[in-house]
Please model this.
Amino acid sequence: MILDRPLRAAILAAADSALVRRVVSRYGFRLGAKRFVAGESADDFLSVARAVNAQGFAVACGILGEGVASAQEATAAADQYCALLRTFAQDGIDANVAFKLTHVGLDIDRNLALENAARIAQTALDTNNTMRLDMEQSRYVDSTLETYRELRSRYACVGAVLQSYLFRSMDDLRLLLPLAPNLRIVKGAYLEPPAIAFANKADVDANYLRMVETALEGDGYTAVATHDRRIVERVIALVEKRGIPKRGRFEFQMLYGISTPFAQDLVRAGYRVRLAVPFGTYWFPYLMRRLAERPANLAFFLKGAFTK
Ligand code: FDA
Model:
């Protein structure tokens, strides 16, 4: 979310080009994606999850995938999440799951997505764990929040995500607060039109802080998901001022491969920190979003092409 809009738009537009997609899909994992992605298989993920647990981090597991076009693929993704939740319980891995509703069928039929998400929620409940619905592009916000409300009325273990770049998000937050929600607050990873989203980073950041402050006033649980050191420091000052304990009411979350030393400092200081660790073969859009967030990543990625 740091890039100026034109550069960000150019990277995300290039991501739609068939040639870029072909070249990056062929070589990108070796060149760049493995910095951000645990690997292509569940076994790759489980070994990374164990390693980051050993460093004191909790994990949010994400299977890479979105916008699936068949009910079979959607159901298979939900099956895989259920199997992983059972593995976490059996093997004592400190990980929950977070997924996109379009990965479990939202583009096909909202009821299919709801059914699949409910099956994952039931497994999370049965294994004494939690799950979260990621937030996608703005066209999915209403259906995602509607699905979240339906699931939340049946399962206390379900969380959602709000994006501070959208004008609407503070209102969404206030409407959800009576549910004592488990909410992850993020800045937002997609390119949204200026009619509905803050165009300036300073406004996104200010809204982020206001949203975290408001969420912490409620009875729910807040996941402060950002690598922004200034914001993390402001949140720490806020919880200290309000006497909110380091664990139990909120946690910090970061993405695997980004800001790890900073995350380690937070663990050492006694905070709960969860790393979102994705895996799977469909890593192209995820990698493109990480590249669009930071020009230095693009340089890192291209450098890889010439040094391997
Ligand atoms: P910002 O972009 O201001 O970056 C602050 C600092 O972090 C930078 O100066 C840099 O040091 C570092 N940094 C940030 N991004 C980096 C990158 N890609 N590579 C290297 N360094 C980087 N979005 C969404 O729309 N829906 C969702 O469901 C989620 N889910 C989610 C889960 C978790 C755990 C996290 C941490 C983030 C998300 N996001 C997300 C992504 C989020 O919206 C946002 O795009 C990124 O977190 C980057 O924004 P920051 O808050 O880090 O701030």
Summary: The pocket of dihydroflavine-adenine dinucleotide is lined by residues 1-2, 134-135, 161, 163, 186-190, 225-228, 253-255, 258-259, 276, 290, 293-294, 297 (CB under 6 Å).
